[in-house]
Amino acid sequence: MKGRTISPGKVEGEAIVSTEPIGFYGGIDIKTGVVIEKGHPLEGEKVSGKILVFPCGKGSTVGSYVIYGLKKNNVAPLGIINKETETIVATGVILAGIPCVDQVDISRIKNGDKVLLDADNGVVEIKK
């Protein structure tokens, strides 16, 4: 799948997928990488070391700092794939150096899929 590069880099890993937007401030624990937002489909799941797939971000601009903090605490996702990356997530992934693409049909990616995220070229490949 071809998308738009938000933050460059190339990673491969297991997808963790949410059909709901993610708010990083108050939604993901900055020290553990665990989704803590009550009622969120990924509540209790750890995003660390995985390719995090979700439609878009939501909430406070402090979310950018949370993404950066996840990276500094070594609990960040390997990469991020969005339907649409808004300013909060874009700023966070660029500051943290996390590969990110958007304008991708995320409905084709399932939890547990092995994904190659080549954000240098804006390409997402689901490995079989």
User: Judging from the principal axes of the Cα atoms, what is the shape?
Assistant: globular
SSE sequence, one letter per element: EEEHEHEEE
Architecture (CATH level 2) name: 3-Layer(bba) Sandwich
Report mean pLDDT, rounded to a whole number.
96
Radius of gyration: 13 Å
* Cross-sheet strand order for the largest sheet: 1-5-4-3-2-6-7
Biggest sheet descriptor? 7 strands, mixed
Write down the CATH topology.
Glucose Oxidase, domain 1
Domains, number? 1
- In terms of DSSP E residues, the strand content is 25-35%
Number of strands: 7
Alpha carbon gap, first and last residue = 14 Å
Counting H and I runs of at least 4 residues, what is the number of helices?
2
SS class: alpha/beta
According to CATH, the homologous superfamily is Phosphohistidine domain
According to CATH, what is the class?
Alpha Beta
**Helical residue percent?**
10-25%
Kindly describe this structure.
- With 128 residues, the protein is α/β, with parallel strands linked by helices.
- It has a single domain (4-127), classed as Glucose Oxidase, domain 1, CATH 3.50.30.10.
- The chain has two helices and seven strands; from the N terminus they run βββαβαβββ.
- The chain has helices spanning 62-72, 87-96, and strands at residues 4-7, 10-17, 51-54, 79-82, 100-102, 114-118, 123-127.
- It has a seven-stranded mixed β-sheet with strand order 1-5-4-3-2-6-7.
- α1 links the parallel β3 and β4.
- α1 packs parallel to α2 (87-96).
- The longest helix is centred in the middle third of the chain and has 11 residues, at 62-72.
- The chain is globular, with a radius of gyration of 13 Å.
